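Usage example:
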Amino acid sequence: MSGGSALLAAGEEVLQREGVYLDQQQWDEWIALFAPDCEYWVPTWTSDRTLATDPQRELSHIYYSNRQGLEDRIVRIRTGRSPASTPMPRTAHLVTAILALEPPTPQRLRLRSTWSCQVFFPRARENHTFFGYAHYELVLRDSRWTIQRKKVVLQNDYIPTMLDVYCI
Amino acid sequence: MDISQLRQYIDDRPEQGIFRVHRAAFSDPELFELEQRYIFDRTWQFLALDSEIAGPHDFVTASIGRTPVLVTRDAQGEVRAFANVCRHKGSVVCREERGNAKHHVCAYHGWAYDTSGRNVYIKDGKEGGYAAAFDAENHDLLPIARVGRYKGLIFGSLSPAVPALEAFLGELRFFIDLAMEQSPQGMEFVPGRATYTYRGNWKLQMDNGVDSYHLTSTHRSFLTVQERRRGGAEGNQEARQFDWSKRLSQDSGMFQFRHGHTVGWVNQAEVEKRPIYPRIGEIRERVGDLRADWMLKLRNIVLFPNIQIADSTSLILRTFRPLAADRTEMQARCLAPIGEPAEQRAWRLRQFEDFFNASGFATPDDTLVYEDCQAGYGAQPLEWLQGYYRGMTIVEPGASPLARSLGIEPVSSLQGSFKVQNEAVFHPLYREWARLIGCGLSGEEAYQ
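Running the assembly step on the lines above writes:
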């Protein structure tokens, strides 16, 4: 395996683990994939054909400039007091088409993926599939690949009832 | 349905301390039709902001009930609204959400309309072998019967028999002004679409927009998240979210208005968390201290039937559209002062996303409980709901001293500690609901 493909494989593993941790509700493992100062962004569509480009000027579904906002989500789930998160929707993430957006380096990987997430809402006894693509920037921190930046594009943004970090 | 049957949905006897709504008001499919016909097709409905169609030939698409609507600014700068359907075969003409175009061309057979709605092109018309009867027909886009503007808000009504917009809004205008006068340049929507649906009746949203009683139960998990943020070191600090527990000891109240409108308000413990706070000096100078102080308070408006302007965190303009008796489409828009400095705009966005988004910390919990309510409305032994009683003994008919100090004449007022969490705020909604359906069923004019 060449250096480039070994790096790519290491990055792919992070992306796959992210989906697995969400599906298995391993929140601590999930949050640990992100750098404390990571940016997490799910832009809205500003029309049928245009996506928001600036989270400071346009509405986002979710925008955090660090990991604290993601931690809030876990706190909320763990209270057991959020009607939207109790019982927890069950999910299955499929993450594919992982490609490098720039040549991998030993310190930084920029990757894209195509994702789809089946969500089963136990209260409604119904399923919904959210899908889209994502851009990641991974950096090597303490010899571990960590998500420094993640941008999730939600392709089907007509949202049935709710959306949370585990649905995308 | 005949009019006597309306009493099976609303039991309104305030003199006996009774106000009840029957669960069937939320689930009866027959009512969906009546509501479309006698409420949504016969009231002023929000279409757009003036600032969305600032220039000639700008347009947005919207809907009134089941009618797709095209809103344009024509070449002369006049705001126009039409049923967005081609006269030829009824296809939706303009398929974009917004933009600028001198002509709107139907994708089906190519008929074209200008921004004043005039038909300017019938493809291969000369060769069409049309009879004189066809030529005698008007081929223009069908105008929405009434179009009105107030403080940058554009409304339309499918029925011509509505009061003038200002009269329809009535005394609620004081509270609309508080939302629409936050900048000398007017207000705009921050770009970004947030549309979601839920499996429940539209009136669940109508009520919840002014329901303060659910805060400490439905949103308990958010209160926990806020508690953790309070130290300043943990959680999403950028949202600068209000400490809701501070609201529980505040003075609060409601005003009921004519035509079904209603307002709930709470004193704001943390005025400095308002994104307009850094500009409050300019605002005070322009609108006066009284109005500026009220801009800082929490205010939730229901503009009957389906428009809510809420300023519980940052400003939201929310519209909801019934798709069926048990299904509703929500549009949440972030309303913001034009010319707002970049830092305050980002602050506003973080507050909005944190609270109002379908992907936020508050709205999903609301929406899920609506769905649980809808499921509960199938319960045969359940008749009258008991969720409309709180605060009934402290309702003051007419204008309270507070109302008079604001220069408004509500139908009734209520003021008390937040803990009242009054439900009398819902009464005008259901009174107007029953009145309009009643007028529809009896064939009476709804407005004099």
